Amino acid sequence: MRIVTCTKNGQHELGIIINDRVYTCSEIAPSLPTDMADFLIRGDEAINDLKYYHIALTEGRISRPYQLLQDSQLVAPIPHPTSVRDAYAFRQHVATSRRNRGLDMIPEFDEFPVFYFSNHQAIQGPGPIQCMPLHLEQLDFELEVAIVINKTGINIPASEADKYIAGYMIMNDFSARKLQMDEMKLSLGPAKGKDFATAIGPWLVTKDELEPYKINSSGDHIGDRYNLDMSCRVNGQQVSSGNFATMHWTFAEIIERVSYGVRLFPGDVIGSGTVGTGCFLELNGTGRMENPAHQDQWLQVGDQIELEVTGLGKLSNSVVLYHQ
Q1: What is the pTM for the complete model shown?
Q2: In the chain, which stretches have pLDDT less than 70?
């Protein structure tokens, strides 16, 4: 299923997409949750209930009012996460970024998955991203995949962790690189370089929808892995391409690390980190190494950014100046 949060009569409404039609849960059945927070708290029971109506609508056994997707206003599928963590799970991105700074690959990368907390109150869906002037000093995209948790748990082993995932979605971890680099000289952060906007969406895709793309885990790793092409276009020009299967640490292993001594809750969002070639910071560094005359590219006001991941859709955003 593709599950959305849309705006209806000024309120957020939970819904599903079938053949480019948006059916809101309030119109489908009174027993269904009408917002994403309630949906996630109800766990797999809510997924199974919604799946029942999804199948019935798809097969034409029932009919309900709907709105065309093109006429619907989608917001972030999880508008108010209980927390947002972002991992650092793609070896290519880490190794290339360090090489471009004259650093060797850090051996601790292979010992455990690492992550940081971002601002769960600055979540955006498709649409404009408001930026202050300092954000526009080396503004960057980050091409990622994210999950959301729908069960409470602590000390979750990787072998059980995929059961805690409600679904997958695209994430764009917008980054103000000048701010980020300045503050991280103090060995703390990222903070202001990251806390202004993280875009997720356009919808939440349940795991059953990704079964055709499932592949075996590599080496000694544990957890679900999927063969999903990932790309980014800026103003219609492709600037990045990668694959979700190249993620070194699986989400199951990240959940094990995240939940060590800490309780996870329905609504917690976890990002994968940037796929290889998945940001201008990495691309510019490589470009300068290969060509001394390389001209760095960063996001500018008016730019249109489109992230696309096989099976997860397209997440489109634009850069605008902040206004109250």
Answers
A1: 0.97
A2: none
